[in-house]
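Q: Convert this sequence to C-alpha cells.
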Amino acid sequence: MYGRKVKLRFLFIIIILITLILTTFLILKSLEENVVYFQSPSEIKSLPEIDKSKIRVGGMVKKNSISINSNEVNFIITDFKNEINVTYSGAVPNLFAEEKGVVAEGFLKDKNFFSATKILAKHDENYMPPEVKEALGEK
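A:
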C-alpha cells in the first residue's frame, strides 16, 4: 500500500518519538531524587506522619528567637500561624537575621523540632551586597 520511502519515514519518526519520551522520562526521574521543595511550618503540622527523608522548612525567623551556644544555633521558623524549633550546628549566612526569610534543610525529629544540616537565607529583589553598595556610594 505505502511505498518504501513512506515506511522508512514513519519508522524514523516513531524512533525519534520513543527516544524523546524515554529521554524526558529519565531526566524527570533523576530530578525527582535531587529536588527538595520547602514546606511551611503549617504544612508540617498537617502531615499525617513524619517522613525521615531530607526536607526543607521555609518561613520567617521569629523575633527574639535566635540563641547561639558555642557552635550551635537555635531559632524558630514561623509562617505566622505555626512555628517549628530549629537546631543547627555550623556557621550561618550573613543574611540570616530575625524577622528575615530563611529556608533550613535537614530532618524532622517530630512536628515541633527540626535538625538543620544547611541554612539558606533569603533576600528580596532589592538586595545589594554591602561591598557593592559601598562602591556605589549609596547608604
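The chain has a mean pLDDT of 85.
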